[in-house]
Amino acid sequence: MSPLAAVLARDLRLASRRPAEALLPVVFFVVAASLFPLGVGPEAATLRQIAPGIVWVCALLASMLSLGSMYASDHADGSLEQMLLSRLSALELAAAKSFAHWLMTGVPLLLVSPLLGLLFGLSWDAIGLMALGLLLGTPTLSLLGGMGAALTLGLRNAAVLILLIVLPLCIPVLIFGAGAVSAAASGLAPDGHLYLLGALLLLTALGAPVATAAALRISV
Amino acid sequence: MQARGLTVRRGNEVLFKALDFEVRAGQLVWLRGSNGSGKTSLLRVIAGLSRPDGGSLHWGSEALAQSQAWRERLLYMGHANALKDDLSALEALRFLTTVHGRTCTAERMEAALRRMGVFHRRRLPVRMLSQGQRRRVALARLALEDRPGFWVLDEPFDALDDAGVQLVQQLFADNVGRGGTVLFTSHIRVRPEGLELQELNLQGTRGA
Fold first, then answer.
1. Mutate which of B77, B98, B109 to test chain A, going by most A C-beta atoms within 10 A?
2. Residue A60 to residues A28, A55, B71, B165, Cα–Cα distance (Å)
3. Alpha-helix runs per DSSP H in A41-123
4. Cβ(A103)–Cβ(A12) under 8 Å?
5. CA–CA separation, A56 vs A106, rounded Å?
6. Could you read off the pLDDT of A117-155 as tens digits, one per residue?
7. Which of A57, A189, B172, B203 is 20 to 30 A from B85 in CA distance terms?
8. What's the domain range around B96?
């Protein structure tokens, strides 16, 4: 097994040892999104209109939930030092950790999003579009989240600081993700929004691991 | 490995200033100094985890940070054991050896754990082990090495019982016998049999 695969496999195995913890983001996602119909009222037309925004905001918050522990526990028990001294470059480590985070939070969110779509009475076309948007957008969230987690490593109140650092950076993803579904609903082509989500993903995939790696080297 | 004019600060405090020393292949070096004298900081600088505030480190003619040969040789273990609580002892050891690019068979890993006296605990999650047992699992990495390495160990004897201390000294002897080097800190005085123990003392190196 290559060192890169070993880091990935270890993170997934650790998550499987604590299933309750690993499922927390997706449970939060479902619970938080299903609170909205109760608060806003059961009017189908209104719900259908605000559904994309709700799903995206909840997905964003859910994927922030597990960021705090992304590097913190490895930092506390010395694993992070060892990984930084290993055959992996800090860049590879940052990319592997973000990818593992996406597999453990982004993918489950993606998988349950059709359920929420049905709950809000979205059409299948809109649900498919929302899932596609999430597929392009959630990796960006994990990459940006990794950067925030690395920057706040070893600080007190790290969990809140991560949110303050990462949430503003996620705004474009939110706008274009929710925008794609809304655009399609009003009869416009959603392609532009999806292209921009893809562009954001490419940009963060190139930039965020570099920033994360630099932050890790400073924090350790 | 040579250090020239090494200066390390912690915050505004100068831990040591213009420190020169040399560690050669086949040496066993005990890094001494009182609490807070910068032993751990020095080891972290040597391992490349933090940067010195002045001076340079060399491996032969190469700068340490750039040397691939050095990276191959370096084995650093800090205070923390770097074992994940939820992994079993065997899994934790396998992970550490794999990320460091050592390929090693299950038999060899089991043999290493047996040598460290924690073989019967290999399937238990690390959180069920005592502090001493965890240290032994972490140190099993040393028992897996078969090439001359440059070991940088921060308090390796921490939490170990007498038998454990003896075991680790044997591992030191193995590495030094292969032409490797061991640089370690310890608050207990160790007397490895048949080995010459060099001392590197950080006392009195503090600058103004």
1. B98
2. 11, 9, 40, 51
3. 44-65, 68-76, 79-84, 90-101, 107-119
4. yes
5. 12
6. 999 999 999 999 999 999 999 999 999 999 999 999 988
7. B172
8. 2-201
Q: SS3 letters for A139-182?
A: HHHHHHHHHHHHHCCCCCCHHHHHHHHHHHHHHHHHHHHHHHHH
Q: Which residues of A touch B73 (CB under 8 A)?
A: none
How many domains does chain B fold into?
A: 1
Assess if residue B32 is contained within a domain: yes
Kindly state whether A48 is in contact with chain B, defined as any CB-CB distance less than 8 angstroms.
no
Q: Any idea what the CATH number is for the domain that residue B142 is in?
A: 3.40.50.300
What's the alpha-carbon Rg for chain B, to the nearest Å? 17
Whole-model pTM: value is 0.91
**How many folded domains does chain A comprise?**
1
Beta bridge partners of B19: B6
* Residues recorded for chain A: 220
Question: Minimal Cα–Cα distance from B131 to chain A, Å?
Answer: 13
- CB–CB of A1 and B98 under 8 A? yes
User: From the first residue on, what is the mean pLDDT of each consecutive set of 10 residues in chain B (208 residues)?
Assistant: 87 84 90 88 90 87 84 91 93 92 87 92 93 94 91 92 91 92 89 81 64
Only one residue has tokens 């655009």, namely A183
In a domain, B206, yes or no: no
Contact A77 B81 (CB under 8 A): yes
Q: Which two tokens stand for residue B133?
A: 């047992």
Please report whether residue B175 resides in a domain: yes
Contact (CB<8Å) A79/B91: no
**Residues B49 and A216: beta-carbon distance below 8 Å:** no
Nearest CA in chain B to A9: B95
Domain range for A168: 3-219
Residue that has been written with the tokens 């590495």 in this structure: B175
